[in-house]
Structure prediction request, 277 residues.
Amino acid sequence: MKNIDIVITLTSLEVTMKSVKQIFVDIVTGKTRHKHLRRISHNLRKLNPLTKDRHQMEVLSGPVGYSEEIGDYQLRFLKSLGLEPHHTLLDIGCGPLVGGIKFIDYLEKGNYYGVDTNDDAIATGLIHIIKHDLLKKNSVLILSHSFGNDELRELKFDFILASQILYHLDESLIDMLFRQLRKRMHANSRFYCDIIGYPNLVKDDSSWQGYRFYLHSLDFFKSISEKYGYILTNLGQIEKYGYPSMLGLKTNIMMEFRLKPGADVKPPAIDPRQAVE
Ligand SMILES: C[S@@+](CC[C@H](N)C(=O)[O-])C[C@H]1O[C@@H](n2cnc3c(N)ncnc32)[C@H](O)[C@@H]1O
Prediction:
């Protein structure tokens, strides 16, 4: 185990040293050094025992270097839309809990549920729950490729969030998500999710962790809303809710979905708070 640690450290150090050398080459040849400084800072975060867990979290949630700001933005955003500690929240594509840790801390016991397809992200999230002494909050993390359809049974939530994920899903997965969400929502539930806005830095071959970027249109979501009985509200670009302004995704569009009044919301709804007692 010790040997493995040393190998990892040396590999990171070599990359860092190479970057330092490259900086001097770039200064001499007059090239920009910004790219290398950023890379060095990432490698140092990996080496530093105080920051390496955070680095791992950021690799699994992206973009690296902004987890604190992005977590704060997610909590501030939902609070501005009325989230209070007694509310229940389902975090779809929760990743390693960049926002999740803030939500778990803020919400009352048993009110946070996270779903993700990536076991590394779920495991890292669990480590952060322990590190932040939040096990006592009885949060539920679910590894699922069907948005927790089987595990969540008839549970309904006050708030549902899918932050920085819908543009990695194709149209058929989004259709499945909206079909299932009807089961997760009561008459006052709201679902929030963001899509790529304009201008953006997305290119044809852009990808993140093997996921491509889909440029879904608002019209696509209008037709999904018609199909499944939602009211769609365009809340504008996420930068205005505190998303870091130096990141390209700041122009993402945030949308709100509510069930149309009178939509067929079938009782009995199970309250998530009782499900984890
Ligand atoms: C860019 S990360 C965002 C993580 C987190 N929501 C945040 O804002 O920090 C996208 C996350 O969505 C997850 N994901 C991708 N496809 C998914 C799916 N079909 N169901 C649930 N999660 C999914 C990925 O594993 C990843 O953790």
Remarks:
- The pocket of S-adenosylmethionine is lined by residues 61-62, 70, 92-95, 98-99, 115-118, 121, 147, 163-165, 168-169, 173 (CB under 6 Å).
- Strands lie at 89-92, 112-116, 140-143, 157-162, 185-195, 207-208, 211-212, 230-237, 253-259.
- Residues 1-18, 23-30 have pLDDT under 50 and may be disordered.
- The radius of gyration is 20 Å.
